[in-house]
Amino acid sequence: MELSIKGKVVAILEVATGEGKNGTWKKGGYVIETEGQYPKTVAIELFNDTLENHCPKVGEVVTSHLNITSREYNGKWYSNVGAWKVEKSDASNDAPPQQNIGGGAEPDDLPF
Question: What contacts 96, CB < 8 A, 6 or more positions away?
Answer without folding.
Answer: none
